[in-house]
């Protein structure tokens, strides 16, 4: 590095890409140059970075010449094809798609939880799934002290996780329904999952499908939460199970999380204290004042918010909590930029 | 009964009351006359019943002279004051508020589950909480065959449960936010709970508070699900715990339900078959065709819809499912009218 890194954002015009650019505007990473890459269709668009206009360039293998760090968020197919091209040209890739996440040669990193895994990177680091990341940040301080035997999570996921067009669809469906269009007549072309056969309205609805269905009638999103948790926490013995649900929220994923800890000695007060003191987490938990995390108030923050921590009625080592974070930031763009910052701090950017 | 019953609807102009009138239009209950009662403020309003106009009358103790069956849904305070007046005058009361639910002298009834409890009524029968009812209908066929050791439920509850004004608030907040009003500027006067101190926007948000906070930082809504389940299933040993969340849906409560059964021999296929054959339940469960229950498509149906039934990843006797029903119908108005029909069928309306 001389005077800073050359950083590329792949998928610069997308819901996550634009947030990556925002996060880079305030990064502690020394920056020399930021290059914005996207599909041919988006090439030529102008975006603003720190007050100057940058032109989006078409993504090509040669785009990565001279790039030190490449942040990818343009779909699994693009990562599969272009991440190796970037690595070949000397860049470290932080990939926000699911493509490399379960590859044993690719670290899957939430900096607050397992930054040590970065030491083994071979050019590609994977950013976990949005719904996994915030749960990891919330649970790691508890796991470190009391261990985790079991996690049952039901998610309340925002539409922005499905991209800019899904956001527009939610808004236009909501307007149409309020103005009198019958639910059966609402136009739906994207959710629950762009790549699946049928589409359903999300406005004033709750869809228990995120991503396609996979083995045993779980969805891929649910398997991501299960498998990624075990990889990030480096513990295949943790019992994890998820029900992933899309709700008509623009941004901010919420999660109803039930855990059973392993060791004796835990209490609601101790768990609150651990959460309050942990990095990346803000405790918002005062029922007497109606203080608890909310999707709407999480927007724009890099933090994960935790509240409604309470003991299970019947199981001594069981606790329930409500975990909320801006899915586009800690769930995607911020975690990616934070990984890049951590690589720099740990002197792991190969140049 | 001569030529049918005289039925009164108390709270006739409310979100549930208007649905009670709809349900009475198609009831199997022999009807002689329907009397609509409400507060002084609503008295004089005209409502349609089977094509004829009925005038809403002011609720007074004397309103119940000659009434055989009174359906109450006007708030706990009204039930406390007027239900005994109705009983005193010979009416049987079906009360949709929480006021009498845990009274040991008051049967708490979901007809598909425990209609035998009606035999012990002393004039008042309580209609359970909306979120409890649909869970009971879904789980009873499983409990009967395999027993239930434990239930963990996270709810996705619609705004209509909080009344007509809450529905209007959701719509106006949604419109304002889409048209550019910042989340912090959205006007909120009702949710999460009319009787509590602070109010938050529900549009594009998820609020982990329904009703006021109670013991141990659980909400009253969560305690209702816990306590009512044990009373309806007549089994204090069932472990039940709930996280109740309001989401921006107009009508149709959804629930992510985890259960552990007691006996050996269960399987996903057997549980699907039990649910499919049970009264009041429709199995909507074909992931290969993206078939699962949805709040939007549940509206207007008396059924409880169950889908996404799958085995827990780690626990042999653990199952997850997604349970949806129209909270104003099976969760309130229909269950009340159904109780009245069942009282008639069992010859338990005292006249």
From TrEMBL, chains A, B:
Does NADP show up as a keyword for this record?
A: yes
One Pfam annotation reads Semialdhyde_dh
Q: Residues that bind NADP(+), according to the entry?
A: 13-16, 41-42, 160-161, 327
Q: Which GO terms describe its biological process?
A: 'de novo' L-methionine biosynthetic process; diaminopimelate biosynthetic process; isoleucine biosynthetic process; lysine biosynthetic process via diaminopimelate; threonine biosynthetic process
Q: EC number(s) for this protein?
A: 1.2.1.11
GO terms, molecular function:
aspartate-semialdehyde dehydrogenase activity; NAD binding; NADP binding; protein dimerization activity
Q: Does the keyword 4Fe-4S apply?
A: no
Which residues of the sequence carry a binding annotation for phosphate? 101
Q: In which pathway does it act?
A: Amino-acid biosynthesis; L-threonine biosynthesis; L-threonine from L-aspartate: step 2/5; Amino-acid biosynthesis; L-lysine biosynthesis via DAP pathway; (S)-tetrahydrodipicolinate from L-aspartate: step 2/4; Amino-acid biosynthesis; L-methionine biosynthesis via de novo pathway; L-homoserine from L-aspartate: step 2/3
The residues that the entry says bind substrate are 157, 246
Q: Which domain of life is it from?
A: Bacteria
Looking up SUPFAM superfamilies in the UniProt record yields: Glyceraldehyde-3-phosphate dehydrogenase-like, C-terminal domain (SSF55347), NAD(P)-binding Rossmann-fold domains (SSF51735)
NCBIfam families attached here? Answer: asd_B (TIGR01296), PRK14874.1 (NF011456)
Assembly description: Homodimer.
Entry similarity comment: Belongs to the aspartate-semialdehyde dehydrogenase family.
Q: What does this protein do?
A: Catalyzes the NADPH-dependent formation of L-aspartate-semialdehyde (L-ASA) by the reductive dephosphorylation of L-aspartyl-4-phosphate.
Question: What is the protein name for this chain?
Answer: Aspartate-semialdehyde dehydrogenase
Which species is the source of this protein? Enterococcus rivorum
């Amino acid at each position: 590095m001389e005077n800073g890194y050359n950083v590329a954002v792949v998928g610069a015009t997308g819901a996550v890409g634009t947030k990556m650019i925002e996060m880079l505007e305030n990064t502690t990473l020394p920056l020399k140059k930021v290059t914005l890459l996207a599909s041919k269709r988006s090439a030529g668009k102008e975006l603003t970075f720190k007050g100057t206009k940058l032109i989006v360039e078409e993504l090509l293998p040669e785009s990565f010449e001279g790039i030190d760090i490449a942040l990818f968020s343009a779909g699994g197919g693009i990562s599969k094809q272009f991440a190796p091209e970037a690595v070949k040209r000397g860049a470290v890739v932080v990939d926000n798609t699911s493509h490399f996440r379960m590859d044993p040669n690719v670290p899957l990193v939430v900096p607050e939880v397992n930054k040590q895994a970065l030491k083994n990177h071979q050019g590609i680091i994977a950013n976990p799934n949005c719904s996994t990341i915030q749960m990891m940040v919330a649970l790691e301080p508890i796991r470190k002290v009391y261990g985790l035997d079991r996690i049952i999570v039901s998610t309340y996921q925002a539409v922005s996780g499905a991209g800019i067009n899904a956001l527009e669809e939610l808004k236009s469906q909501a307007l149409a329904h309020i103005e009198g269009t019958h639910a059966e007549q609402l136009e739906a072309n994207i959710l629950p999952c762009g790549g699946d056969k049928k589409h359903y309205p999300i406005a004033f609805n709750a869809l228990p499908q995120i991503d396609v269905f996979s083995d045993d009638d779980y969805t891929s999103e649910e398997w991501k939460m299960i498998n990624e948790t075990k990889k990030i926490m480096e513990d295949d013995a943790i019992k994890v199970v998820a029900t992933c649900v899309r709700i008509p929220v623009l941004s901010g994923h919420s999660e109803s999380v039930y855990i059973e800890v392993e060791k004796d000695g835990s209490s609601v007060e101790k768990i609150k204290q651990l959460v309050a003191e942990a990095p990346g987490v803000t405790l918002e938990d005062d029922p007497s004042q109606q203080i608890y995390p909310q999707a709407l108030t999480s927007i724009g923050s890099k933090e994960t918010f935790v509240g409604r921590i309470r003991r299970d009625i019947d199981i001594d080592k069981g606790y329930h909590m409500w975990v909320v974070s801006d899915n586009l930031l800690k769930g995607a763009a911020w975690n990616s930029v934070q990984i890049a910052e951590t690589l720099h701090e740990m002197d792991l950017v190969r140049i």
